[in-house]
Amino acid sequence: MAKPAVFLDRDGVLNREAGYLHQVEDLHLIPNAAKAVRLLNDHNLFCCLISNQSGPARGYYSLNHVEALHERLQHLLDKEEKAFLNALYYCPYLSPAAGGTNPQFTCWSTWRKPNTGMLVAAAWEYDLDLQQSFVVGDKATDIDLAHNAGAKGILVQTGYGKAVLSGSYQHETAPEYTAENLLEAVQWILTHELF
Ligand SMILES: [Mg+2]
């Protein structure tokens, strides 16, 4: 039977929002983020990173650099709480209109959030039920993604979350829940999952 999943945005949810991370050492976990992932692991809830990473399309850095950032992310999760992500998806593509310049990655892509490509790919690969799933993010576009996929959206107040709530960033949004941070989001999920 298809299982529920918790999809996690990266910047501003797991690690501190600090713009484009040109140095791997500049990736730092948000307090209690590792604890939150560990809680998902303990409850056998499939935990999947879904991240727009337009750095390669903008010509800022290579795919290898994005992979190195994700190795550090996984290392820090493991080091703090022996926590782990079950899968990692990211979209390196960006349309020309949105600022893509490197021809290798400059295209429209159904993987770019709030399009649902990464969730659909994960659902096929790991037998996930998107309607029973959750998306946790710090942007209105993460909540749009959740709703586009038929999942529930949780907005955290780390990263851009507070700016979204005050109306000074992106657009108005109606998440199923607004959480202080990822740990509180996961605690809410654990009391609201339907199985
Ligand atoms: Mg984010």
Report on this model:
Helices cover 33% and strands 14% of the residues. The chain is α/β, with parallel strands linked by helices and 195 residues long. Strands 3-2-1-4-5-6 form a six-stranded parallel sheet, sandwiched between helices. Helix 1 (33-42) links the parallel strand 1 (5-8) and strand 2. The longest helix has 19 residues, at 63-81. 46% of the residues are buried.
- Tell me the strand order in the biggest sheet: 3-2-1-4-5-6
Distance linking N and C termini: 12 Å
Low-confidence stretches: none
Radius of gyration, in Å, reads 16 Å
The domain tally reads 1
Largest sheet, in brief, is: 6 strands, parallel
Q: Under the CATH scheme, which class? A: Alpha Beta
**Which whole number gives the mean pLDDT?**
97
Helix content: 25-40%
Tally of extended strands? 6
Count of individual helical segments: 6
Query: Ligands in the structure?
Result: magnesium ion
Structural class determined from secondary elements: alpha/beta
CATH level-3 fold name: Rossmann fold
Nutshell version of this structure?
The protein has 195 residues and is an alpha/beta fold. Helix content is 33%, strand content 14%. It has a single domain (5-192), classed as HAD superfamily/HAD-like (Rossmann fold, 3-Layer(aba) Sandwich), CATH 3.40.50.1000.
Key words describing this protein structure:
single chain; 195 residues; alpha/beta; Rossmann fold; six-stranded parallel beta sheet; 33% helix; 14% strand; globular; binds magnesium ion
